[in-house]
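User: My instructor asked us to take a sequence, write out its structure as tokens, and then describe one feature of it. I'm not sure where to start. Here is the sequence I was given:
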Amino acid sequence: MSQSSSTPQAQNRKPRWPGLIWAVPVAALAIVAWLALRSYLDQGPSVTVKFPTTGGIKADHTSVKFRGVTVGQVTGTRLAKSLEEMFVTIRFDPYMAGHLGKGTRYWIAGKEVSFSDLSSLKSLIAGPYIGVDPHPGPTVHEVVGLSQEPVLKSEPKGLTLILQTDHFDVVQRAAPIFYRGMQIGEVRGKAQAPDGHGFRIYAFISQKYLHLINARSRFWNSGNIRFDLFGKDSGLHLPPSNAILSGAISVFTPESGKPATENMQFQLYPSAQAARWAPRSNAVSYQLVMPEGPKGLTSGAAVRLEGARVGTVTAVDMRYDPQHQALQTYVQLALEPQSIPLADAQWDEQNPRPQMDAMLRALITHGLRAELQQNPPLVGTPEISLVMLQHPKAATLAAGNPPRIPFVEGGSLAGTLAQVDGILREIHALPLPEIARNLEITTHKIATLSQSEKTQETLRHLAAATQHLNAILASGQQQLPETLQHLRAASAQAEQALQAADGLLAADGSAGNAPESTTLPRALYELSRAAASLRSLTNYLNSHPNALLIGK
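Assistant: Let's start with the prediction itself. The structure tokens for your sequence are:
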């Protein structure tokens, strides 16, 4: 047997393992698969939102934000067949799972710049983003987005109030709300009122400032640039810098009241003055009637008592009276008891009507009347002024609902012009041409008379007589004392003689004093009467010294 036949033959077999060279790609494939599985398991929920067609939304570029924090990314966009709508696919971060349930709202934000939030200017460069208002629950994967940012969003800490106004553009979204200069909230949105009359502004107040607000708080538009020419606050008034372009709202709380509640409605006043003098709950209402039209008087005008503001005009209504064929204006006003303090008494806060009526009745009896005036005069706005007049026509506080205060014309520019017009009409009715002609004739006659020779001669004689009379008076005044002295001496001597004669008669007995008697008693009787006349003359000259000169 040969040697070769006993040697074993080699066999060629293929190994089950392809070799170490394939280990690297297999490991790489396994790693990729693991990363893909992990990425799929770690990714957040996906939602497709239908929006009106809007430019600027880009896949892998546009972010999704919740209160300024990025919570997702746009992963795809496509247009609908109508081209009026677009579908936006959003991939959220994993922690958003459980917060995208039914009621979650989506909108495209950043399309407009808010000047109250200058950080929104970056949207001009970065483009718009998707805003989201989450709601808890299982993820809803297909929803319809909003065409604009919702007015009210979920806010765990705070209160949303509704401010009613007649103007839509008083403030912008995100405008600040101030309380004595401190920001306590912001404007969340605006919308037309459901009844179509006016607009609503949704104001959000932070939770920590809710103690500053109650049901009687008053809001006003404080974002206007204001220039006051008159008054103690005259000058240029600028709002805070962050409110110049977006506007601002301010609020104050004048009195205690019930706590504010969600969606409670308030009036938005045009100015701080209007908010300050808006009638309170215990304001007392009255009315007055003006002849003709309102002459510029409007609701909200001031009511002043002797110059001090005590109320506000609440309504102005012009009517035509067919019976008298004339226009009349009915004015309603509200007086604030707190603005008229009582001496040694207090107002009944719950029912001040009896006290206010009694006060007005007393003042009207003493001359209180209502007038239409302008403050400042001539150039100011019309307002109602309650003033005390001297000797006005009798009037009372007329009964009615509400009672009527007597009104008199005057005080306003229109009343002054009416009085001037009446005076001018009376002057115009005078026969001025005839009066002028008579005056001219009279003047001419006086001039002719003054130039005549007889008039001049008469005036010369009159001047000479006046000078002579002055000389006589001067001389008489010098001689009068001496003459009076002589008269007094003669009177004294006559008295002495009379007394001596009386004594003589008393010693010899009585004598006859008949008128026809010629005896001594008769002579003494006549002498007594002469002495009495002389005394009367002396007394008269003492009191009338000029009688010697003028003959009386």
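For the description part of your assignment, you could build on this observation: Confidence is low (pLDDT under 50) at residues 507-518. Try explaining in your own words what that tells you about the chain.
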